[in-house]
Design brief:
The chain is of the alpha/beta class and 316 residues long. Helix 4 packs across helix 11 and helix 5 runs parallel beside helix 8. A 5-stranded parallel beta sheet has the order 2-1-3-4-5, with helices on both faces. Helix 9 links the parallel strand 4 and strand 5. It contains 11 helices and 5 strands, in the order H-H-E-H-H-E-H-H-H-E-H-E-H-E-H-H. The protein folds into 2 domains: 89 residues; 194 residues, Rossmann fold (3-Layer(aba) Sandwich), CATH 3.40.50.
Amino acid sequence: MNRNYRDGSRRNLILLLFCILLFVLLAGLLLWSRRSDAAQTAKLQEIAAAEENASGQDQTEIQENETENPEEDQEASDSDNAEAGEDSEEPSQQTETEAQENSGEESGDSQEVQAEGIVCWGDDLINGEESATHSYRAVLQNLLNENGYELTVIDKTLQGAGTLSMMTMAGVPQEEVQGFITAHQEAAQGQELPVTETGIRDLTPEQTQRNDLGCIPVIFMGYYGGWNHDPAELARQQEAILNTFPDQEQYIIAGTFPLDGSVDSATLDSVMSEKWGEHYISVASTTSNPASTYEGQADLAAAILQKMEELGYISK
């Protein structure tokens, strides 16, 4: 009995000592944890304070720099504002330009395309080498140069040829040309006709090549015939050549009575003026000299230049 009691007392004592030891250990751990937390907190406070001081110094330096260099800062600000202003002005200027262009289109004002040159179609009344100096084409080129016009005069004339050959050279459809020939033969009722009324000259590839489609045409033809003495038919043949050009707004038609005298100037001019209006130049009204003379050719050249300026085809 006593022995059991003693064993129980001993176990209780050991258990008590273990509890006391465990309590002391827990108390020590708690104390250590508090001290560690306090140290960590103090360290964090020191770091925060150090960062605060550094930030304060940086701000002070910035303020000092701004105070020391106000002009530089202002210049930089002005430069930035100027660049922004330029950027904002560009679209405004573009919008203004577009508005002007649109306004021009709406009002019908459009800039005409500059002609590449002037081309002379039809009769060459000055024969041989003298044509290069005294023909109306040569005189017209000199007048253009003297007046500061940078335009080349292209020669598409034929010496002694009729209008049928000229239409063929221009590329008028052969069936259309043949239609005129057939009409001439029917009207002759078996009588012999001049060669120009039925014949077409043999043409070289160089003559039929078109290098003048961007030019202003001057059509002066009919002196040697080919239109059956009918001014209305001559006007249709002139129109056939004009139709081979892409631009049929700028052109000049010049007319003189035929070599055989079958039609007088007054009759020819009446039909031509009605057909072509302001585009027509009457050689008879322009000069008192025959069209086949040097003087007549020079007067025709001057009239062509004046007409082009009047119609606004060329300007200084």
